[in-house]
Predict the structure.
Amino acid sequence: MQTLRALSRKDLIVDEAMEVDLLDDQGRIIIEAGSILDELTLSVLPQTVYVGPPDAPYKSASDVVDGLFLRSDKNKATGNQRSSERNALAINLSITIEQRNAHDVTRSTKDVVTQDISRGGFSFLYNQYLPVGSLIMATFDMLPGTPEVQGVVRSCRLIEGMKHRVGVAFEDVRRGDS
């Protein structure tokens, strides 16, 4: 059985296509993905509706970033954007850092805030040096399906004291709730 996430009517956006199916408390579809939600339909919905994990909403890291831009209303991402175009968008992320050396692999999970993000990657401030090549798994829990995007550290520059600006290039995306 898939995990359902509860939404109230106020969480829904009128006059926009639904990104995912809306479900009742039994998991039955009451509004299909792609349908436009109007005021009348909204008024007859139960106070609480549910969404399940979307089938495949994010085929690439670019899809995840587009979803973030659409949610933020700060920028509207388009298919014509250059992958290197950076946007100063502060997003709270949970990241898992994987570092390898000759003898072992260490993993740690940290909460960070992005300094900027693009369709090709993101940067964040961190309190220690991260070696180039370290793997990063970033969880975007503010998006439907909780996508996780794998990336690799491409740069780590000392800013001041122990603070470093870490640049991550996206590599792969998967659904975090599967």
